[in-house]
């Protein structure tokens, strides 16, 4: 109805023409937006129903969907973990063999909203014993289970074999899903704050809920490093503003004082920095930089920590 | 109307403001908290005296405030909890694909395994095909071995069959045999079931499990929104000396967005701990502040101010958020699928996903959707929790069609 009114024939001056052009542009913009938003879910369905089935396997039914409110119906208590990391929606499907039988494969694609969240749910679930696979941005798995992340998606593929395992099946499926998912294979750019030298591979974590268990350092990245044969942990907390970052440092210091830990200014690092002992950990050094709070803990040598912290601060600044 | 629609975000914001106001007005302790000044009980962990209760027939003396480890990433929070006197820790085979059990195992190895109680859960079903396929005893035992290895211990204090969603599962021979074997071999001192299904399934699960003497502990959803039938079921279990561990105590999903509105969580937890049939609660905690918040309720009695806070909190959600009790299912003379229609509204109102709401609604046949409600002049549908069903059904129909 609105469209008909919009295009009703009438004499048109330059202003009216411009007005119509703007309206057309707005409508097109909305349509493009609507199409691209709708394409997301349907494209996932297309991956699962048209592109994914491998020879000898068929979808058992239409894809299913879950949102934060009902994810627990699918994965029980594990849902809270995903929801805490910004879970947007899940599209999944079950496959069974064309030849019949009890075998099955389940593919679950979690839309986590962005690359960082997808990385965030992948890393803590990573099995340090399982070999890394060359699928998506990061992956691990076995003959009957593969997990990987790519862009804003975290994907789990799980098989149930009653007899002989089809060794390549799950990995082949994972590779097909990864190739079909939109987006790129880049790691979250927040990881670039951490120097690669001496970093312990696989130790990187995106934390939601509190670095070191502190709610005032709610969100951020942590990585472990091997320095002089000792394991230390570096972190960068993401705060909403510079003021909030300064407050977080103050809050941290006052927490340490309440815990009867003395904190001193971190020599050479200016204001809003300190060195102290973190309860249940070892020495910690902390420095605010813009809307970030960076630090290194479990240190036996403050000087070694300072070198690492300096590099992190340099990366943040760049 | 759409413009003034109560979106989830706006709803929570309003609710948070209401709760904050209520707290500020009714409870000076909460005022201190709202202003960022810690409650005396919260700040003084050294002075706090943990409350211990006997976990039913197990005889275990567990801390009333116990720890749901599920989402925790920082071991220091566990050490702090141990120092506060928390001695019962709940994890599961599936949490963080086993890394959660590993973290708990690492901490307890350092702290002293014998000083604490570990509860873990093994899924009785295979995830594929919507949990319809039960694992056999051999694979359950294999999972248990993996869990023990991760936990770095020879035994767990309580082993739960995880997420019982079919009342027949607990009495299935293979489940019973597995549980008995775990007890006999000493790999589990006690066994139980965990469940959070809605409606009648919850009650049936309790009653079925009570037909055997195998299960010593129930881990169940319980919060101030729980239907009376669920509480009565747990009371029946407690009368048979089954230990009751409460989960989802804060009616998850409606977390306040500002630190000033913490009091509904505390009041909700205290409400659960005040139920005489509850032995302990396992709120999930991820940082020290949540630990302090929850430990702040130990030793407190729920007072008028707290009840008022809960009432305000609940009032804000009860007229629209279906508690999935299932009691309404048979009350409609036209067989309208009330549950699915509520869900479609929730997709839109709760998560602002209009398309998903409409799609869900439109998948219903004309016999199932709310078309019949449009001309229904004498609705007999009834919600025991106060939702005006016929209004909501008509609203859904006009919105999505």
Write the layout of secondary structure elements.
The complex is a heterodimer of chains A (318) and B (401).
Chain A: H1 2-6, H2 14-51, E1 57-59, E2 64-66, H3 72-75, H4 79-84, E3 89-97, E4 104-111, H5 115-125, E5 138-141, E6 145-150, E7 153-160, H6 169-180, E8 205-208, E9 219-227, E10 230-238, H7 242-258, E11 273-277, E12 283-289, E13 292-299, H8 302-317
Antiparallel strand pairs in A: 1-3, 2-3, 3-4, 4-7, 5-6, 6-7, 8-9, 9-10, 10-13, 11-12, 12-13
Chain B: H1 8-26, H2 28-34, H3 40-43, E1 52-54, E2 61-63, E3 67-68, H4 75-84, E4 88-90, H5 99-111, E5 117-122, E6 125-126, E7 133-134, H6 137-151, E8 156-161, H7 173-184, E9 188-195, H8 199-209, E10 217-221, H9 228-239, E11 243-247, H10 263-273, E12 280-281, H11 288-295, H12 304-318, H13 338-351, H14 354-362, H15 371-374, H16 389-400
Parallel strand pairs in B: 3-4, 4-5, 5-8, 8-9, 9-10, 10-11, 11-12
Antiparallel strand pairs in B: 1-2, 6-7
Report on the architecture of this protein.
The complex is a heterodimer of chains A (318) and B (401). Chain A is of the alpha+beta class and 318 residues long. Chain A has eight helices and 13 strands. Chain A has helices spanning 2-6, 14-51, 72-75, 79-84, 115-125, 169-180, 242-258, 302-317; strands at 57-59, 64-66, 89-97, 104-111, 138-141, 145-150, 153-160, 205-208, 219-227, 230-238, 273-277, 283-289, 292-299. Chain B folds into two domains: 13-313, TIM Barrel (Alpha-Beta Barrel); 323-400, no CATH class. In chain B, helix 8 (199-209) runs parallel beside helix 9. The longest helix of chain B has 19 residues, at 8-26. In chain B, the strands form three sheets. In chain B, strands 3-4-5-8-9-10-11-12 form an eight-stranded parallel β-sheet. The chains are: A alpha+beta (318), B alpha/beta (401). At the A-B interface, helix 3, helix 4, strand 4, strand 7 and strand 8 of A face helix 4, helix 11 and helix 13 of B.
């Amino acid at each position: 109805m609105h469209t008909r009114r919009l295009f009703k024939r009438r004499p048109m001056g330059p202003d009216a023409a411009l007005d119509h052009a703007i309206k057309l542009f707005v409508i097109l913009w909305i349509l493009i937006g609507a199409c691209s938003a709708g394409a997301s879910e349907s494209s996932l369905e297309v991956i699962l129903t048209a592109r994914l089935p491998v020879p000898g396997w068929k979808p058992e039914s239409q894809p299913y969907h879950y949102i934060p409110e009902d994810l627990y119906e699918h994965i029980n208590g594990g849902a809270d973990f995903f929801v805490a990391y910004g879970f947007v929606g899940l599209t999944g499907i079950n496959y069974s063999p064309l030849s019949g039988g009890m075998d099955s494969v389940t593919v679950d694609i979690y839309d986590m909203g962005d690359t960082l969240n997808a990385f965030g749910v992948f890393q803590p679930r990573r099995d340090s014993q399982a070999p890394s696979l060359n699928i998506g941005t990061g992956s691990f798995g076995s003959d009957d289970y593969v997990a990987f992340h790519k862009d804003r998606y975290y994907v789990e593929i799980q098989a149930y074999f009653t007899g002989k395992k089809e060794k390549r099946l799950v990995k082949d499926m994972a590779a097909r899903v990864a190739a079909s998912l939109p987006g790129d294979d880049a790691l979250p750019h927040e990881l670039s704050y951490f120097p690669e030298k001496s970093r312990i591979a696989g130790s990187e974590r995106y934390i939601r809920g509190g670095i070191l268990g502190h709610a005032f350092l709610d969100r951020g990245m942590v990585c472990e490093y091997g320095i002089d044969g000792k394991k230390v942990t570096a972190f960068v907390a993401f705060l909403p503003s510079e003021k909030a970052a300064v407050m977080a440092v103050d809050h941290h210091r006052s927490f340490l004082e309440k815990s009867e830990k003395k904190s001193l200014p971190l020599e050479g690092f200016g204001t809003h920095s300190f060195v102290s002992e973190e309860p249940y950990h070892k020495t910690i050094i902390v420095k605010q930089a813009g809307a970030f709070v960076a630090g290194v803990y479990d240190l036996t040598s403050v000087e070694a920590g300072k070198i690492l912290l300096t590099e992190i601060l340099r990366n943040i600044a760049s | 109307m759409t413009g003034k629609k109560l979106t989830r975000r706006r709803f929570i914001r309003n609710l948070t403001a209401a709760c904050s106001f209520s707290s500020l007005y009714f409870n000076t302790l909460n005022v201190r908290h709202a202003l960022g000044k810690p409650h005396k009980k919260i700040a003084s962990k050294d002075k706090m005296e943990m409350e211990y209760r006997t976990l039913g027939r197990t005889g275990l003396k567990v801390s009333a405030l116990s720890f749901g480890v599920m989402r925790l990433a920082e071991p220091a929070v566990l050490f702090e909890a141990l120092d506060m006197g928390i001695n019962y820790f709940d994890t599961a085979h599936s949490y963080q694909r086993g890394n959660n059990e590993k973290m708990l195992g690492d901490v307890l190895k350092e702290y002293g395994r014998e000083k604490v109680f570990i509860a873990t859960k093994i899924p009785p079903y295979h995830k594929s095909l919507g949990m319809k396929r039960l694992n056999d005893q051999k694979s359950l035992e294999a999972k248990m071995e993996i869990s023990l290895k991760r936990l770095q211990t020879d035994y767990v204090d309580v082993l739960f069959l995880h997420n019982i969603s079919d009342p027949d599962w607990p009495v299935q021979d293979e489940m019973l045999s597995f549980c008995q074997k775990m007890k006999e071999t000493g790999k589990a001192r006690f066994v139980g079931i965990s469940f959070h299904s809605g409606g009648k399934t919850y009650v049936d699960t309790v009653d079925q499990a009570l037909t055997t003497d195998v299960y010593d502990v129930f881990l169940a959803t319980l919060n101030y929104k729980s239907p009376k039938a669920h509480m009565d079921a747990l009371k029946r279990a407690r009368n048979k000396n089954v230990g009751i561990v409460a989960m989802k105590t804060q009616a998850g999903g409606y977390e306040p967005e500002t630190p000033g509105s913490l009091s509904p969580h505390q009041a909700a937890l205290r409400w659960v701990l005040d139920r005489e049939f509850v032995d302990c609660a396992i709120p999930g905690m991820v940082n020290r502040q949540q630990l302090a918040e929850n430990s702040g309720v130990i030793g407190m009695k729920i007072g008028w101010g707290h009840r008022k806070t809960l009432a305000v909190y609940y009032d804000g959600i009860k007229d629209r958020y279906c508690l999935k009790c299932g009691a309404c299912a048979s009350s409609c003379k036209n067989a309208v699928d009330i549950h699915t229609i509520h869900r479609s509204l929730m997709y839109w109102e709760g998560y602002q996903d209009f398309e998903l709401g409409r799609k869900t609604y439109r998948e219903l046949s004309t016999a199932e959707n709310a078309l019949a409600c449009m001309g229904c002049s004498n609705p007999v549908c009834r919600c025991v929790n106060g939702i005006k069903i016929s209004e909501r059904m008509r609203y859904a129909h006009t919105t999505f069609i």
